[in-house]
């Protein structure tokens, strides 16, 4: 199931009680997401407490785990885990975040067993982790297009925030050369050092130039 199909489906049924116990818990949404979007088998993911996801190999083997830092930006499809409290908490990032906030779909945030859409900051009770799925097949918004010579290129559409473009794959502030506008399309040439080399349109012209963006799927 594609990511957008999954979120629309879960919202349409007002949440999911994946295991039939204790109502709509945060882990129910997480396990259902892993199965329906990431392609895991039923029972392959999960643990007694959400806070333990980041230290349980049955879960982490499907993800790249990032502990939050001041310059980290979560991507659409990431799973967030908060380690505070007795049980911790887990939810799904619904679009690319900013340095100040990120949007989520989650269950039982307030102990009410409800599905909610939230806008969160990065200050939490305990530690904050982001888990990026290794299987991005149902998350990436890409199209395949034929180009001259019979090769293929990937057309990427930017999200709802302005994306800086850098002159080197290090993506340092001093190397910034431009930006992608909200929802702007660009051509992804290849992945280099974990970032994307793209060709994008220079504002106000019909000219294109290359640069690097910090996309992660």
**Sheet having the most strands:** 6 strands, antiparallel
Strand content: 25-35%
Number of helices: 3
Our Rg estimate from Cα atoms comes to 18 Å
Strand order of the largest sheet: 1-6-2-3-4-5
Mean pLDDT: 87
- Write down how many β-strands occur, each being a DSSP E stretch of 2 or more residues: 13
Proportion in helices: 10-25%
Query: What class would the helix/strand composition place it in?
Result: mainly beta
Q: How would you spell out the order of helices and strands?
A: HHHEEEEEEEEEEEEE
- Which residues form runs of ≥5 with pLDDT under 50? 142-151
* Distance from first to last alpha carbon: 17 Å
What best-fitting shape do the alpha-carbon axes yield? Answer: elongated
Structure in words:
The chain has helices at residues 3-12, 26-36, 57-60; strands spanning 63-67, 79-82, 89-93, 102-107, 115-120, 128-133, 142-146, 152-157, 163-166, 176-180, 185-192, 195-201, 208-213. It is mainly β. Strand 2 and strand 3 (89-93) form a beta hairpin. The radius of gyration is 18 Å and the shape is elongated. The relative contact order is 0.14. Mean pLDDT is 87; it is low at 142-151.
